[in-house]
Specification:
two-stranded antiparallel ribbon
């Protein structure tokens, strides 16, 4: 094969590899720029220029041109190896990127699932908070009923009169009716009637008292801040009923004052 054909084939190889370097240059695989390709491309362009000059006019000795062609071929062969190495690097980076994308997608799915679980738990906590708030309100307001009938009975009954812990108010009213004509019963009725007059006691007060009593039955007996209780009354009570609760609280305070 003559030198001209050798030079043309060499130029074709060089152009093919320059194209490959340009393709690699345009890649930014997985965020990693292939920086080393620039030097490789510059070397190939230098070899291309020499090959073009050789094709334009080979006017030097055959020995010199053969040596030059051989030298360039060695450079091109080395460039081929480096390009293959870069292509392998790109392949690995692409595989890593694909694996990372799959991993991210899987993690996103897990996070989405966790978000759903958290939302479910938040709703569950919210329901429990509402329930606890209702229980707290019932405890505070219900305790008023307990304090009312206990303190009222202590004040109204004769000092030596014993009473239990069940149906205190109902039993007191029954006792007052049964003993109204006795000396002790008469004095006790006077006390109760005076309180009713002072606080304008009505059947509505009594109805609210029993409503308070019902809310207390489910729970224990907390220590109640009676000054704050009007802000803690359950939403089950209307504004009008809350006013009756306030009257009941005031009666408790009054009874305790009278017993001092």
């Amino acid at each position: 094969m003559d030198l001209h054909c050798l030079a043309k084939k060499l130029l074709e190889r060089i152009m093919t590899h320059i194209k490959k370097t340009e393709n690699i240059e345009q890649l930014n695989v997985a965020g990693h720029a292939i920086l080393e390709v620039q030097d490789l491309k510059d070397d190939l362009i230098g070899s291309k220029e020499i090959a073009e000059k050789m094709i334009e006019g080979i006017n030097e000795s055959v020995e010199l041109n053969i040596e030059e062609i051989s030298r360039i071929e060695r450079k091109v062969s080395k460039a081929e190896e480096e390009i293959r190495s870069l292509e392998e690097k790109i392949r690995i980076l692409n595989e890593d990127e694909e694996d990372n994308q799959k991993r991210v997608a899987r993690l996103e799915g897990e996070v989405f699932g966790k978000d759903g679980q958290i939302a479910h738990l938040n709703k569950k906590v919210e329901r429990h908070e509402i329930k606890l708030k209702k229980i707290e309100s019932a405890l505070y307001t219900g305790q008023i009923a307990f304090d009312f009938e206990k303190d009222l009975a202590t004040y109204v009954y004769p000092h030596d009169k014993k009473f239990g812990s069940r149906k205190i108010f109902t039993n007191m009213k029954k006792w007052l009716e049964e003993k109204k004509d006795t000396l002790q019963g008469s004095k006790a009725n006077e006390k109760w009637n005076a309180l009713q007059s002072e606080f304008l006691w009505s059947s509505e007060h009594e109805r609210v008292f029993f409503k308070l009593l019902e809310s207390r039955k489910q729970f224990a007996h907390p220590i109640v801040d009676r000054d704050a209780v009007q802000w803690q009354i359950s939403d089950d009570f209307t504004d009008e009923e809350k006013m009756r609760v306030k009257d009941i609280v005031n009666i408790i305070e009054r009874v305790n004052e009278l017993m001092q």
